[in-house]
Amino acid sequence: MDRVFKALADPSRRQLLDRLHADNGQTLGELCGHLKMTRQAVTKHLKLLEAANLVATIWRGREKLHFLNPVPILEIADRWIGKYERGRLRALDELKTHLEGEIDG
Amino acid sequence: MASSRFVYVTYIRTTPEKLWQALIDPEFTRRYWVGTWQECEWKPGASWRIMIPDGRVADSGEVIEIDPPRRLVLSWRNEFKPEMREDGYSRLTYELEQQGDSVKLTVIHESDKPGSKLIEGVSNGWPLILASLKSLLETGESLEATRHWPQGI
Fold this sequence. Notes:
A: 2 domains, elongated, B: alpha+beta, Alpha-D-Glucose-1,6-Bisphosphate, Chain A, domain 4, 7 strands
């Protein structure tokens, strides 16, 4: 999970994910065409994104296609969002108990 | 160049053999694939179909390539929704690759038809099914929303 946060911490890498979100399944050349980054920089960023499983690549013929893979982001949500919700519900429940107890008393 | 494609990569803490079994065994798929199961002899050229609990066929096709427990390629046509059936045959590829204590599962579902309704449909379905498969293999429990065929569909 460290890899995912590290990969997402960089604005250029988020921009690459945005490009794939807009148009999934691009080649390196297509991705470079839309960005003010050198091909070398894009390659480096893609490697990090792939290591974090945020980008999936498949070969079709001679082309390597890049896809946004939202799985790690879903896993982050599953791991923490539910917990926060539970916490909020517990806090509300305690507040209710507290307030109702005061009225009763 | 194929024009509609869904790609999903997930890491599951299991072995390639167990994951392979979970992908094809009816007892497994019923638990994470909304109550459905597949009928197939699992050899090259064999016909293949997904059965809905009420007796309808959800999808059908053929085994194009099979290399247990590494790679499975199926042709895939929807059978129960006319607007998706019109798209004709798509292609589904599962790739399983051991990486440390996990298996990297890549699912590619693609069609030569631009803007395929079938690919659009499965793109919404696959993430929940595959998350449930991962949950089943890692914790012994599938996700609740995937245990039964949805009512009215």
